Amino acid sequence: MLNSKRMARTLTAKDALSWYFKHRHVFAKRACSSVNLASVSYGINRKIHAEYALAALSDPSRVNSFLLQQADVLALDTATRSILENDAAEISALIARMRAFIEKPWA
């Protein structure tokens, strides 16, 4: 079971998988917008956009890691597992990049 503060509900693994793929394009759009703005900004604007990006990435990151932990229970096919693993790697890289922007907004 995945309990999400933002969604205010508890999801089973199967529900979480459905929710994740239903909202995946929304996550990408929201996060990419903030990531792009943080990439071209400096100073306080970079920090603000990086914080927005981290907020946009928090739910997808948690749901993605939950789904990967439950992959055996869900009996995921290789294509779905590959998508989840690629998303996890991309989310992790973006989170690291946004944290670096927050630490050094003028770099």
User: How many separate helices?
Assistant: 4
- The residue-averaged pLDDT reads 89
The Rg value, from CA coordinates, equals 15 Å
Helix fraction bin? over 70%
Strand proportion = 5-15%
Structural class label:
mainly alpha
How far apart the termini lie comes to 41 Å
Label the overall shape: elongated
Order of helices and strands: EEHHHH
The main pleated sheet reads as: 2 strands, antiparallel
How many beta-strand runs?
Answer: 2
Subunit organisation of the chains = single chain
Strand order of the largest sheet: 1-2
- Unreliable residue runs: none
Comma- or semicolon-separated keywords:
elongated; single chain; 107 residues; mainly alpha; 4 helices; two-stranded antiparallel ribbon
Protein model, in words:
The protein is mainly α. Helices cover 79% and strands 6% of the residues. The protein has a two-stranded antiparallel ribbon with strand order 1-2. A hairpin with a 4-residue loop joins strand 1 (2-4) and strand 2. Helix 1 (13-40) runs antiparallel to helix 2 (44-69) and helix 2 packs antiparallel against helix 4 (78-103).
